[in-house]
Model the fold of this input.
Amino acid sequence: MNGKREPRVIIIGAGMSGMLMAIKLIESGMDNFQIYDKASEIGGTWRENTYPGIGCDVAAHYYTYQDVPNPEWSTRLPQGAEIQKYLLGVAEQRDLRRRIAFNKEVARADHDGQRWTVRFEDGEVVEADFVVACCGLLHHPRYPDIPGLGDFKGAKFHSARWDHSVPLEGRRVGVIGNGSTGAQIISKLSERKLDLKVFQRTPQWIFPLPDRRYSQIEKSLLRAFPWVGRIIHHVYRVAFENLFAAAVLKPCWQRRLMSWLCKWNLNTVKDPALRAKLTPDYQPLCKRLVMSMEFYPAIQRENVSLVTDEIDHIDARGVVTKDGVLHEVDVLALATGFDAHAYFRPLELRNVQGRTLSEAWKQGPYALRTVAVPGFPNFFFTLGPQSPIGNFSAISISETQINYILRCIEMFRDGKFRTLHPTPEATEKFNAFIRAAMPDTIWVTGCTNWYMSKNGVPSAWPYSGNRFRKELREPNLAEYELAV
Done:
């Protein structure tokens, strides 16, 4: 490498961002890296989530790597199995599988002032110059704190741990939760010959995002001209960022339009009593929007009943609500989401001063430019605190973050530093910049949403997508403490 350093990089996670980190390292001429994943296959969330109706509510051609278009998408909104197939194809195309160690869960990592020592649950120990956590945002299932949940005698599972061996036809199925995952499950199960009870904790605004199938002619065109796929990716990115993103940032015509469409969609529910039960008491977009054209038709089917009374407890036979009614079910599906603030934890970090990440994040997660934490040298992550989450393409967000991380590793390779980590001053300045924009956002208008962190600040990006890319375009070494 012409006298340049050759960094040893450990990537944690073989999902979409971990694979992209590997691809970018290879393209930059760096080969000394290894991906570790706790599971036995790649794919991350699209490997683990296989519930009925699983899909993505971001357009398929936007939910791809920018430089690896996929001409084979069958619908505008991709199904989970197709996304997993795309990721498997990228792994084969880029020869990544030989670089992945499966069934390897990282337990902790310690920095001695020079390098990281990474310890695995199976006892193996490895060293590296950089550790990059690409663990995804929503991968720690959150179970509801309902008394008696363990007393239920029927089949019970979280949506991210769906048990396909459990028969559903002809049975009484209960679903707790009606966010994006719950809406997809409810829509799909309503089509089957079963009795479905939906336990609604909070009504959701449902945005009518239409889907459609792609024709063989369209697929053939994209196979013949891959650059067309890149153009479509860009068009969808611009559309999403200038509609959904703009609507949450401040009062504007986009917010008014999307609110009107959500209310129009709700009015397709014919029964006034049912419509009233489905009407939220907060503004559209305050919570992450559910995107569906199928949910309202599903909830009106004869085999579906909506329960809005608060759950008191669960017993062996089913769900007991506060009004004393026992709702007997044979199967209980928990569409209760994920711990959105765990990030890459339970991985524990310890620096040369003996301080742990748990201590650093005691008052809540924070980061410089969404990718690094003061005091922990040469450690980076994707989809960290204040990342543009919600109705965005997580792949597009990760691409911006990974390009930034790659530049830092390249500067190490070029001898500009041995270690770097953010200064507390730069990190506080960045987070003050975030807090300053929050009062105009829809997230602080009075609802309870999963964006909200322990310190009361939504863990989301309150500016445009263009501003995010600008802020992460090039690392500013003045924001870091360097050791050469």
